[in-house]
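Structure (tokenized):
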């Protein structure tokens, strides 16, 4: 069990560090979107295009990266929205059982199936070297490969959550500290004193 805890800690830290990177990508996406909006407006007066299809597509590529790679991080910090009418009132042990069964019966099979059904599409995109149909657009096959990376990370984080759930059921829940090994929720990247419940419980 100790080996599984160590592996879960490594997975947690991987996704926490990825979450930190995605925050910078979000800022870059906003700045790029602002530039594209201003450039389209100024193009009317400049007489020459100040933006391009590549820049426009790069903006939604960044959004895709944030959305896809952020799924595992969101699971790590319990940031996915859930409608909760019972979970929050249960004991930690009962919550552990719900999380364990949810992970084994729904999350892990879902991630595995999505990997399975996505692989042929991603493979074909790489085989043909798929690119944007718009003039000057970006290659499509690299961003499609991120779909596989996303669900692989989600699967790994799901396995880590299963280990944490077993610990909770056994009363052996351990706070792994701010580096991503914590098991009690909250955002490991939040500033001290700003932590709040991120579970989205209603």
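Design, position by position:
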């Amino acid at each position: 069990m100790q080996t599984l805890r160590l592996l879960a800690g490594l997975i947690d830290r991987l996704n926490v560090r990825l979450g930190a990177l995605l925050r910078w990508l979000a800022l870059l996406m906003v700045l790029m979107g602002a530039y594209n909006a201003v450039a389209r407006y100024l193009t009317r007066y400049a007489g020459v295009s100040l933006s391009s299809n590549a820049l426009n597509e790069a903006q939604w590529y960044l959004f895709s990266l944030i959305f896809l790679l952020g799924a595992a991080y969101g699971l790590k910090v319990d940031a996915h929205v859930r409608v909760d009418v019972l979970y929050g009132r249960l004991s930690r042990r009962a919550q552990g059982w719900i999380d364990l069964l949810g992970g084994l019966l729904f999350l892990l099979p879902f991630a595995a199936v999505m990997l399975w059904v996505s692989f042929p599409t991603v493979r074909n995109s790489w085989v043909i070297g798929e690119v944007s149909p718009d003039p000057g657009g970006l290659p499509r096959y690299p961003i499609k490969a991120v779909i596989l990376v996303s669900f692989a990370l989600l699967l790994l984080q799901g396995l880590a959550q299963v280990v944490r759930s077993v610990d909770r059921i056994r009363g052996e829940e351990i706070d792994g500290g701010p580096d991503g090994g914590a098991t009690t929720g909250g955002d490991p990247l939040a500033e001290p004193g700003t932590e709040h419940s991120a579970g989205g419980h209603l």
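Reviewer-requested clarification: Helices lie at 2-46, 53-76, 92-128, 141-169. Residues 191-202 have pLDDT under 50 and may be disordered.
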